[in-house]
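Take a sample.
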Amino acid sequence: MNFLNADFSPIRVALFSGNYNCIMDGPARALNRLVAFLEAHGVEVRVFSPTVAEPAFPATGKVVSVPSIPVPWRSEYRLALGLPRAIRRQIEDFNPTLFHLSAPDWLGHAALRLATRMNRPAVASYHTRFDFYARYYGGSWIERPMTRAMMRFYNRCDLVLAPCRSMADELVAQGLRSPLSLWGRGVDADTFHPDKRDLAWRRNLGFDDEDIVIAFVGRLVVEKGIYRFATVIDGLRQRLDRRVRCLVVGDGPSRDTFARRLSDARFTGHLSGEDLARAYASSDIFFNPSDSETFGNVTLEAMASGLPTLGVDAAGSRSLITHGITGFLGPVDDSRELVNLLERMVRDTALRRVMGAHARQEAYRYRWSEILGDVLDNYGRVIERRHAVRPLLLRPVRAAVPAAAAPAFDLPLRAPASVESRKAAL
């Protein structure tokens, strides 16, 4: 049965996001790409999110603005205040087949209550480690209560989509009991390509051809590990005679502080598309110092660009970097070992070349069409289960196992067939 033509079709998805296009970040990009994919396959989508006068990029699909206020101390982000009666009526008129919740914020909680009242399934995608961020802002004491509160939210959902296997392991260890599957991330391997390397562009930034350029790409905020990056670079320079330079792509509230720590780095600000692809390919090593990532889109883009990558041994990087093959994973709290690994990469040109080639090959496995098709599959499974339709012929949603048994998952990141063939199987 093709679920798009079943009695409860066409599928209508109400998507709730605290940041759909106010700020350019990984979750916002992934959600916009998902909406474009769903609409291209006949799924109706209505997005409910805070909006701003000058968004970071044009939104995909139809967006309904929800009331919000600036997040204290991080005013570039908005905090949605829930669902007023008028918007609840819009949702009821839209009559969604399924609710997709992207964060356990006030908006997500209000949407989950409405889904329960309307007897609609709720799928939650896990994007951001809000509880983990607390330790970076003097709130370590609240991390565990926040984790418990987040797990209560996710355990009320019909399905939770984790971005990678290692993050799924951590969610189960934290107490997740809801059915669990994966929604990974993909990369455009044609846009992000080693051939985009541009020596003239490097020279215009002040880099010599012999320089080893180490790249950082991401939001310039403390939770992205920017001070860990600076500490490791300082340690590296104390050991090497050759020129090691840094390229920083991105912007954020900590830019000035980061720039003072890396006095001779080149800061480009935010880049996207071909400009971003050129920046990756024109570097020599990619260093992702963040231990707060749930996936690590920038790491995957760097890999597709043919860069060997150094990451810390945490959830996001652990699922992407194969230690010793596509790059290195170093201890989160051992800057000396991170310096050792980075020094090895800087000194060994052949190692960088081989690792970069393996990284490029690995990145080819992450194809957006198949990864987004998995989300469509998961929607179908959840809807059929709720509507008591016959079991699907595709792989079942895996229920979360007890923490003691983790990581005993069988959660493929990619589907084995095309989107159309999977839809036909339904």
Observations:
- Confidence is low (pLDDT under 50) at residues 1-8, 389-426.
- Residues 3-186+367-425 form a domain with the Rossmann fold fold (CATH 3.40.50.2000).
- The first helix runs from residue 26 to 40.
